[in-house]
Amino acid sequence: MKTIVITGGSSGIGKATASLFAERGWRVFELSRHGAEEPTPNNVLRPSTGRPIERSSSPIKGGEFIHVTCDVCDSESCRKAIAEVLKQTDHIDVVISNAGYGISGSVEFTAIPDAAHQMDVNFMGAVRFTQAVLPQLREQGYGRIIYTSSVAAILAVPYQAFYSASKAAINAMALALANEVKAFGISVSVLMPGDVSTGFTDARKKSTAGEDIYLGAEKAITTMEKDERSGMTPRQMAQLFYHIATCRSPRPQYVGGFSYRVLCFLERLLPKRFVNWIEYKVYS
Question: ∠ at Cα 39 (206, 239), nearest 5°?
Answer without folding.
Answer: 105
